[in-house]
Specification:
With 292 residues, the chain is α/β, with parallel strands linked by helices. The protein contains 10 helices and 12 strands. The structure holds NADP nicotinamide-adenine-dinucleotide phosphate. NADP nicotinamide-adenine-dinucleotide phosphate is lined by residues 6-7, 9-13, 30-31, 35-37, 57-61, 76, 80, 98, 100-101, 127, 146-149, 154.
Length: 292
């Protein structure tokens, strides 16, 4: 298949472009190749490239900044996605769009594809707008919500913990938000499988963290797998004031993907895979394989 990947130099887009190119002809696009907010450009580029499928990894992802500049978030995550949906529809291309756990309000132990979306922050609302525009504009689409991504091309939570551990002996980490950390490579492989099914719809995919783990538990495992000994102090969300409200629970029920035969790795196994790649990419950084 001819696959256009948007946001191809972002954290997910980089890994996804590589993983899809093992099986497909991939055309990676950055914002300078095609700015989602430019409707005419999106229409022209998609018409010229004639992809079978577009995987949209582009997004406005500054969760706290979005509270200050909602228009910027809606322009990319809402109307930008609408532009892509209309262009795909006109060119008879399938759209595979990545969305977020932040479309939910965190008031259930777990959220499935049919749960009511009620975002708590501007970023989540803008991502929900993008989902709705897809529903209204086209029929051949996959929307896949995921959570707590980390990958080698982004300044993610794992890197933040390791950077703090390099600076300090004591780290404070939030213990009252639950979710599922997800390695970008796991998600990319799952999306590659999903787009071969033709089972259009709204899905959830994360690494398997059971009923969810806290950021604190994630940090404990990061240090454990790295072999670093530091004092980790669990703190409440209110002790770390940020602009955007986060859902207390954002664990996603990934049952529909599993029924399609798409396997999920445990979050610890994925973290070990990430750490392994990290030590190869950055010689001298000590890692200790899987911990299960
Ligand atoms: N990170 C997470 O924890 C997380 C959790 C759940 C869901 N998601 C979703 O997963 C997807 C990938 O996230 P990510 O963390 O990989 O994001 P990311 O690293 O911030 O990458 C986003 C990419 O989008 C590009 N972009 C921004 N505005 C654009 C525009 N107007 N036109 C075209 N491209 C544009 C960016 O390009 P520049 O860098 O050049 O601006 C960047 O390459 C997003 O849909 C996000 O909402 C992420």
């Amino acid at each position: 298949m001819k696959v256009v990947v948007t946001g191809s130099n972002g954290m997910l887009g980089s890994d996804l472009s590589r993983i899809f190119s093992e099986m497909h002809e991939v055309i990676p696009l950055t914002v300078s190749d095609m700015d989602l907010t430019d409707r005419a450009a999106v229409s022209r580029v998609i018409r010229e490239l004639t992809p079978d499928i577009v995987v949209n990894c582009a997004a406005y992802t500054l969760v706290d900044q979005a509270e200050e500049e909602p228009d910027a978030a809606y322009r990319v995550n809402g109307f930008g996605v609408q532009n892509l949906a209309l262009a795909c529809s006109d060119s008879d291309a399938t759209l595979c769009h990545v969305s977020t756990d932040y479309v939910f309000d965190g008031k259930k132990p777990m959220f499935d594809s049919f749960d009511h979306a009620a975002p708590l922050n501007v970023y989540g609302k803008s991502k929900l707008a993008g989902e709705m525009f897809i529903h209204w504009a086209m029929s051949k689409f996959y929307i896949v919500r995921t959570s707590w991504l980390y990958g080698k091309h982004g300044n993610n939570f794992v890197e933040k913990i390791l950077a703090q551990a390099a600076r300090s002996n004591e780290l404070k980490v939030v213990h009252d938000q639950k979710g599922a950390p997800t390695w970008t490579e796991s998600l990319a492989v799952a999306l590659r499988q999903l787009v071969s099914t033709g089972a259009y719809g709204v899905y959830h995919f994360t690494d398997d963290a059971g009923a969810g783990i806290s950021w604190y538990e994630f940090a404990v495992e990061i240090l454990h797998q790295t072999g670093l000994e530091r004092q980790l102090k669990p703190v409440a969300t209110w002790e770390f004031p940020v602009k955007a409200v986060r859902p207390a629970i954002s664990t996603l029920d990934c049952g529909l993907m599993e029924i399609l035969g798409i396997r999920r790795r445990s979050w610890k196994e994925s973290l070990a895979g990430y750490m392994e790649g990290r030590s190869i990419a950055r010689p001298g950084v000590k890692t200790k394989g899987g911990s299960e």
